[in-house]
Amino acid sequence: MSAPLAEDRAHGGGQTPPLRLWLAALLAAASLLLSPFAIGTADAQTFPKLTGFVVDAAEILPPQVEAQLTQQLDAVQRDTKRQLIVATVPSLQDYPIEEYGYRLGRAWGVGLKDVNNGAILLVAPNERKVRVEVGYGLEPILTDALSSVIINQQILPRFKSGDLPGGVVAGAQALEAQLRASPEEAQARLDAAIKEIDGAQAGQRRSGGGFPLGLVFWGMIALFVLLSLGRRGSAKGRRYRGDSGLSSVILWNIAANVASAAINSSDDDDSWGGGGGWGGGSGGGGGGWGGGGFSGGGGGSFGGGGASGSW
């Protein structure tokens, strides 16, 4: 079993440009200001049953590919004591994939209890969305930057060419490689991912790419106003059960992904999933690794870490 990397909550590397610090502060302040209009528990949201390491509810994987992935992910869990699940869903039920993935990890209890070392490779083919959802315990190893690079380099090119099974397999293999890596190898991959992201952003700046900051600002204001008005209107005649940790994560993820897409706009349409420090709370989930049918490990603490993409 590979020794885990030392705890490091950072998701990036190097100095954050002043513009990003300013924008991040703006989003955080807006999220806090809107906390009275917190989103309630999504009573109508349903998830497929966790039946194994591969839950192909969207039916995009041939039987032999599903069997291969199941064997592969079972070995990862036995060897590393970390849990990686592949999930495909026919619909996100009108939720952002970031929110759906966060809730799915909680509902399934992915990862070991008290360690929360689970991750989900989530694919929604009908919405053409993909996400790597990372539990708190794996965030130092599967950072937002590395998750984004895996999506853009391994998954999206295959998805865009119509090879959905190939993209899922390539993504799972890349995630497995990081989970099995020695601390030195894992850190080298993290450093390379940061350089990849920084290089892409520098290229966009040199080519004059970018997004008008004023439009980002007013767009964010409009987004939060609409969210607050919508929640206030729908709250009439109903009582909402509070979930302040989840609500702040959802608001933050929506804001962070809009801002990230605006600042780092590119053909690959990827977004980072917000820092792991935003939100918290352990979800449900049953049992240990074995006995009584397949289950998560009793973890399920997901805070929005990971990355998303679309094709």
Outline of this structure?
The protein is of the alpha/beta class and 311 residues long. The chain has helices at residues 18-33, 63-80, 97-108, 144-160, 164-180, 183-206, 213-234, 244-263, and strands at residues 54-56, 83-88, 118-124, 129-135, 270-272, 302-310.
Give the topology, please.
Layout: H1 18-33, E1 54-56, H2 63-80, E2 83-88, H3 97-108, E3 118-124, E4 129-135, H4 144-160, H5 164-180, H6 183-206, H7 213-234, H8 244-263, E5 270-272, E6 302-310
Parallel strand pairs: 1-2, 2-3
Antiparallel strand pairs: 3-4, 4-6, 5-6
Which characteristics define this entry?
single chain; 311 residues; alpha/beta; Diaminopimelate Epimerase, Chain A, domain 1; 6-stranded mixed beta sheet; 47% helix; globular
Q: Class by helix and strand content?
A: alpha/beta
Amino- and carboxy-terminal Cα gap: 35 Å
Helical stretch count?
8
Largest sheet: 6 strands, mixed
Shape: globular
Calculate Rg over CA atoms: 19 Å
> Which stretches are low in confidence, meaning pLDDT under 50 for 5 or more residues running?
1-17, 31-42, 235-246, 259-268, 272-292
In CATH terms, what is the architecture of the domain at 44-211 and 273-310?
Answer: Roll
Helix coverage percent = 40-55%
- Would you count the extended β strands for me? 6
Element order, helices and strands? HEHEHEEHHHHHEE
What's the CATH topology name of the domain at 44-211 and 273-310? Answer: Diaminopimelate Epimerase, Chain A, domain 1
Overall pLDDT = 74
- Which strands sit side by side, in order, in the main sheet? 1-2-3-4-6-5
CATH class of the domain at 44-211 and 273-310: Alpha Beta
The proportion of residues in beta strands is 5-15%
